[in-house]
From TrEMBL:
Entry protein name: Membrane protein YkvI
Domain of life: Bacteria
Alphabetical list of InterPro entries matching this protein: YkvI-like
Transmembrane segments: 32-52, 72-93, 113-133, 140-161, 195-215, 222-248, 268-292, 304-323, 329-350
Keyword Transmembrane attributed: yes
Keywords, in A-Z order: Membrane, Transmembrane, Transmembrane helix
Amino acid sequence: MNKYSLQIALAYMSVVIGGGFASGNEVLQFFTGYGLAGIAGSVVAAVLFAFLGMQIARISSIMQAGSHKQVLYILFGEKAGFVVDVILSFFLYGVGVVMLAGAGSTLAQQFGLAPLVGSILMTVLVIATLCLNVRGIINLISAVMPFLLVMVLAITVYSIYTSTGSQAELAAVSEDIPVITFLGAEVPNWALSGLLYASFNIAVGFPMLAVIGGLTKQPKAAALGGIGGGLGLGVLIIVLNIGLFANLDRLVGVEIPTLLLAQAIHPWLAVLMSLALICMIYSTAVGMFFAFGARFATPDTSRFKVLSAIFAVIGLVLSQAGFTKLVGTVYPMLGVVGLVLIIAIAMSWIRTRNRSAEELAADPRVQQK
């Protein structure tokens, strides 16, 4: 894995971790509520992450894509691609709002601050970062990833070994954990929940992954980065899911479960974990507001910076609806868009799996974009 592959893998993981499972709240709703069977659901999500990351990064590299919109037009055609782009952009903005709310909940749970304070601080950081160039944004997102991975893994593994609840007791508690809802109804089983989790997160990671893939002219390296990032995400989800299940008896009603696990080990570790969570949430918030702002203006321009600041401030206001409520509302809806993306990406792979990068690059549709 060369430096391009590594950067793609780290950035892919960073964006999804902040939006998908850094707090533990999402994994709790999507997987842990199904008991031990939820572990199988997390394996389903892991396989999908690797496959989808590979294909998106490869297509973007071949196209030398400058935005996710170009990739969508190749996958769906110009008219349908435009519709999907508008819908996806709308829900990505919703995820950005969720991240601002998550920052408020994290600082509130750890330091007793009003949720609005944490949300304001995150909004300021997002606006300041979006004033950088694209490469600078990607470098920042990638740089914090190794430390964050070590933190999450260490706390989760330790929590698994220090769990005091029996399997029967934990299984009974899992029945009281509200699982994710989809189209107004609870998702009936772990397999569908794993698919929906992957579909939501690929919708979150798609815009930034498309941009990063387009920065390298090595499709194989880009594909390897997508696979590596996807498998890394899968391992983390599985470990975190097991850790949450092992401590489920003390996580009911907690908005930021991973923070409580850190607090149980040592108060100072909880402080470090809260800072790590803020960094994870920050990376996703930047990715979401970047993707949304790029829908209306060219990155690195003054218009882009002004619009991004306006969108972030509006998002701050909307974030006061509450973190858990926003997660349960926005994520399943974005999952529908993600399902459409998964189908389109799978069909693209079926059509092009036997074609070389050179043959694909010569495709008139690719050259046109």
